[in-house]
Design goal:
Elements: H1 7-30, H2 36-57, H3 65-91, H4 96-103, H5 106-117, H6 124-146, H7 152-175, H8 181-203, H9 212-238, H10 242-264, H11 270-290
């Protein structure tokens, strides 16, 4: 047992934020050594193997029947389709900070779709938040494209990735809201691995350079991002800290942009920074408003 207020509990939010944001940077760095879909495929194959070993050691409960189908479908969308599209966007020149910012709209889009489906009223400040978030993202994208950073096609890929993640989250909320982390995670990573391996051979000529840099990137993506960060995320959620997790997600685009500046040399102009702030405020309005039930 982890004591309330223990070291892990105090450091989990900060560590999660760093590892999660760093995934965008590692993805961009990995493109120097591998084609984008091949890198995704290797990541998911390794993650699936590790999750499977842990699941068997812990004798986890495996999803069965229709639950197995929904868990696999959610993994296909949330992991396979989402990351294949994001890494293709990276390959087209889209920056890590820009991709993180667009993906930060996912909980906003999810909330605005889910609330009407659940017969919940979308309040005026939540619609304002949606508009503000879209305006902020538009400012960043417009500025980046004007500077020749990224392509319109790459931006479309990131938006498509965000919509795939939104669909996966909505399906999970509706059809498989709870399942064993390790067994269910194995199923999800296997579905994502199967999709990305097939996509790698169909959509590109897979190429990997087994240099130390690539091994370091893959170790980060598999161990730090796929294993440790996901475990910390579930630890916080299971301890009833959903609000803290939500607030951390507000910070991911800003931290990813900062790390991209420090490590990748990506720059954000004043206009882009204003867009980043506007988008963060929009996400806060939508999600904070959703916690105030009438």
């Amino acid at each position: 047992m982890i004591r309330q207020g223990g070291l892990v509990e105090r450091t989990a939010p900060v560590l999660f934020l760093l590892l999660w944001s760093g995934g965008y940077i590692a993805g961009r760095l990995g493109l120097a050594y591998a084609t984008p879909i091949a890198m995704v495929a290797i990541r998911f194959v390794l993650a699936a193997a590790i999750f499977a070993v842990i699941a068997f050691v812990l004798r986890a409960r495996w999803p069965r029947g229709i639950e197995l189908f929904w868990v696999a479908l959610v993994g296909l969308l949330n992991l396979g389709v989402h990351f294949v599209l994001v890494y293709l966007a990276f390959a087209s020149g889209v920056g890590a900070g820009t991709a993180a910012l667009i993906n930060a709209l996912q909980p906003v889009i999810t909330a605005c779709i889910a609330m009407p489906l659940l017969d919940e009223r979308v309040r005026p400040w939540q619609w304002l938040g949606l508009v503000l978030g879209l305006v902020g993202v538009t400012l960043v994208i417009w500025n980046k494209l004007a500077l020749g950073l990224g392509t319109p096609g790459g931006i479309v890929l990131v938006f498509a990735a965000m919509l795939a993640l939104t669909g996966g989250v909505l399906l999970q909320k509706r059809f498989c809201p709870s399942f064993d982390l390790w067994a269910g995670g194995t199923v999800q990573y296997l579905a994502a691995a199967a999709f990305s391996v097939a996509a790698a051979f169909l959509a590109e000529t897979p190429s990997v350079t087994l240099a130390p840099g690539f091994l370091g990137v893959m170790a980060y993506l598999v161990l730090a991002n796929s294993i440790v960060a996901v475990t910390l995320l579930n630890l916080m959620i299971h301890r009833g800290e959903a609000a803290r997790v939500t607030s951390l997600l507000y910070l991911v685009p800003g931290l990813a942009a900062l790390l991209a500046w420090l490590i990748l040399g990506e720059t954000f102009s004043l206009l882009a920074m204003l867009g980043l702030v506007a988008a963060g405020a929009g996400v806060w309005l939508v999600l904070a408003g959703g916690s105030r039930r009438a």
